[in-house]
Amino acid sequence: MELVINSVSKEKLSILKFESLSSIEKEIAKSNIKCVECGVQAFYRRKTRDGKQSCFFSRHIGGCGQGMSNTSNVNNTTKEEVNKINVTYNELILSLEQNGKLHENRNKGSILTEVEQTKNSRSYVIDPSSNKSCKITIKKLLRYAINNLLDDIDIPIIFEGKTYKDPFDLIVHFRNADHSLRGKKKIFWGEVNSISSNKQFLNCGVWDGKGYEFSILLSDSVSNNSKLKKKPWDNGIYCIFIGTLFFNKNDKPYIRLNDINLMALET
Q1: Number of C-alpha atoms within 13 angstroms, CB side, residue 80?
Q2: Which terminus has fewer CB within 10 Å in the chain: N or C?
Q3: Beta strand 185-195 pairing with 171-173
Q4: What is the pLDDT of residue 172?
């Protein structure tokens, strides 16, 4: 579980934000934290000596998106909450580096520990003697963005071999997609509020007679995916996508989405 709320101050806390509190502040907050969605009592588990990350955990009400009860999104080996920051979903997993280097899967004689990844992401190995890292899914990044907690990510994010020290250099709201980002691959997020009649475009923002503020061009395989077909887009759904920014003939920004695994939806 990555988000809790302090029932007294009403402040939302990510695990990264909680870790930045002083010892006294942690002790005070620990008795007041609850799941941000279902409201049950939450607990803090500190980082262990064997490298397991600190986390929050709780006995969630059935169907809570913060828990592990939604078996459609979680494989059988990860149904229990464990000492990790990440939850394994089908979406792409990124790596957050902490005082170390992430190596591609090459064994040069040192003892290396392989990091489990999804089938559509790269395989990495970690040298435990020099590296401490955690993984984060784009689904979790979306939750951080919706709750205005991206500032809590104060360690570098590694994305396609490049390190981003500031999360806002990588994670961009649709309305901030301007010409300075043309041709650049980023993680875009925001509220999708309509789908075109031919099911080829997801649209964000308002129509001004020339186009929407931002659009996502879907490949046939993506637009026909059952994950998208039954969504009530007209009600507004927060989404996050990985894509390269383009501009159409009316100077409207858009990205192409050819892989369903490069997106995540609000649940």
Answers
A1: 3
A2: C
A3: parallel
A4: 95
